[in-house]
Amino acid sequence: MLDLRERPFTDRGSRLLVMAADDGSLWVARALYETRLSDTTVLSGLRVFRGEEELRVRRALPSRIEFDGGVVLAFADAETLVLTGSAARAVWDQGEAAVDGAYTLVGEGHHPDAPERAAARWDAWFARLPDVREDLRERAEMAWWTLAVNLVDIRGRESLIPSKYGYVGLWNWDSYFHAIALRHADPDLAREQIRILLDNQREDGLIPDVVHDHGVLGETTDLPRSDLARLAQHVGGPPVREAVPVTKPPLTAWAVWKIHEAAPDTGFLEEVYDRLVRSQEWWFRYSDPDGDGLAEYLHPYSSGLDDSPIWDHGPRAEPPDLNAYLALQYDRLADIAQAIGRPGEQWRERAQALTDLMVSRRWTGVRFTTPTASVRTPLDLMPLFTGRLPAEVADQLASDLRSPSFWGERPVPTVAFDDPLHDPDAMWRGPVWLNVNYLLIDGLRRSGYGATADELTKRTLAMVRDGGGLYEYWNPVTGAKATRATSGFGWSAALFLDLAITASS
Predict the structure, then answer these.
(1) Res 272 pLDDT > 80
(2) In this structure, are strands 57-61 and 53-55 parallel, antiparallel, or unpaired?
(3) Strand intervals (E) in 330-400
(4) Model confidence, pTM
(5) Distance separating alpha carbons of residues 353 and 359, to the nearest angstrom
(6) Strand arrangement, sheet containing 210-212
(7) Cα gap 405→399, rounded to integer Å
(8) What is the C-alpha separation between 230 and 236, in angstroms, rounded?
(9) Does pLDDT of 233 surpass 90?
(10) How far is C-alpha 276 from the chain's CA centre?
(11) Nearest alpha-carbon partner for 199 in 243, 156, 161
């Protein structure tokens, strides 16, 4: 069931959203990149009458909105909304029309069978949902619906966007998380998300942050003005004047290999291998300004955690997650090279050397540090992702995760519970994000802490199951949607699904 607020009526491939207004009427807007829905209204004030009696919305399903009296609103296609019924009248702020058979409210053509065809499309999509436990089924169906409606055409290619509420573009690491869920039922579509990004890779190897309707976001000169203003207010240090590359954390090879594990395709591995190598090399050639062998994030957006207090001291930082991802990427490049019969390029040796360098330069004997920030975040624990740490270091990180700083009924806060900067409701400053939990679960298993990974999986699934929706992030104290979090968020849907599928197998 859709509530027409957090879960609008929309369709796969459509930019149109039908939502409930505060006065009980419906309004329709179009989802566009970096544009508020209030600025893209198609029509507003929609109500349906029979005679003088208003026919209220009885329920909203993925395939249709049902009004009292048998009137139905359905998508005939991505651009066409159709009202069907008899002896009714639709009234909206911009006009009115009789509904006796079928009336095309938005779009063109005559589509009397729109509700039946929409139902068949959705039945076919839900039939592909992998099996999950019964207690997780309702939320899994919501997640599977979320992934479908977040698929839109961007520059001629079907792209899974994070949300039609404000995130209408194909974001870099979001796409990797999306692909991890899609691989279970539509591996070709999962591969397409990777291809879109790699097809927009720069010559120097950088994979852009966003592919959107008007081009790509690959450096600060491409940022919308609203982003520049927000960053100037939030990020410490002097403003950045020169053009700075903008990307996202290096998880491409990791995602490619996860797709391959579920649906092997050596042709795809051969297609992307050289581009993955170029991306890996970019980080050390262009994103290591002090030349110490440890890459840095040159811009807050490149970390994916742009509102984290890590950035309160300036626009550049080297939290422990980045080089952990890069070390794991070396191992995944080795896996791919072996699968396609290419020379190993000493990828395993490079993985271990980078891990050793992280330990020697950034391990204090107690924790991994971020040179410019003392705040404690779960990024301190992310070197577990490598699966290559010395046993005593890995044991300390696993123990820290299970400590009161990071562990609770709903772990893991994005700033430690006992850090003075912890705010359970502020983006990246305390709420739980599913991608952080998922990456930690992945790293725990790789590092040999299966029981902790299982417990974190259990608590994460319970939080989402009981929290009311698939949000951008959750308040770790209440388990509810954090105040400013977006609803219907793609990677939350995708990663919940992957964890639920794994837990149900």
Answers:
(1) yes
(2) unpaired
(3) none
(4) 0.97
(5) 10
(6) 170-171, 210-212, 215-217
(7) 10
(8) 12
(9) no
(10) 21
(11) 156
> What is the C-alpha separation between 153 and 11, in angstroms, rounded?
12
**CATH 1.50.10.10 domain residues, the chain:** 134-504
* Residue 204 pLDDT: 98
Contact by Cβ (8 Å): 12, 121: yes
Please check whether residue 202 is in contact with residue 208, taking contact to mean a CB–CB distance below 8 angstroms.
yes
Which residues neighbour 462 within 8 Å (Cβ) at sequence distance 6 or greater? none
Nearest of 91, 103, 101, 11 to residue 54 by alpha carbon: 91
Record the tokens describing residue 449, joined without a space.
């802490």
Nearest CA among 404, 501, 505, 413 for reference residue 461 = 501
Phi, psi torsion values for 314, nearest 5 degrees: 145, 170
495: CB partners within 8 A, 6+ apart: 177, 180, 181, 434, 435, 437, 438
292-328 pLDDT, tens digit per residue, is 999 999 999 999 999 999 999 999 999 999 999 999 9
Cα separation, 167 vs 211, in Å, equals 11
Rounded to an integer, what distance in angstroms lies between the CA atom of residue 28 and that of residue 15? 10
1: which 2 tokens? Answer: 């069931």
Express each pLDDT in 172-226 by its tens digit: 999 999 999 999 999 999 999 999 999 999 999 999 999 999 999 999 998 877 7
| DSSP string computed for 387-450 | S-S-HHHHHHHHHHHTSTTT-SSS--BSS-TTSTT--TTSTTSS-B-HHHHHHHHHHHHHTT-H
Secondary structure letter of residue 317 according to DSSP: B
Tell me which residue of 358, 193, 301, 325 sits closest to 253, measured CA to CA.
325
Q: Which amino acid is at 5?
A: R
Task: Centre a 10 Å sphere on the Cβ of residue 36 and count the other Cβ atoms it contains.
Answer: 10
Q: How many alpha carbons fall within 13 Å on the CB side of residue 436?
A: 27
CATH number given to 134-504: 1.50.10.10
Q: Is the pLDDT confidence value at 89 over 80? A: yes
Six-digit token string for 429: 């400053």
On whether the CB atoms of residues 264 and 225 are closer than 8 A, the answer is: no
Cis ω before 412 (30° cut-off from 0): yes
**Residues in contact with 395: Cβ distance below 8 Å, sequence separation at least 6, in sequence order:** none
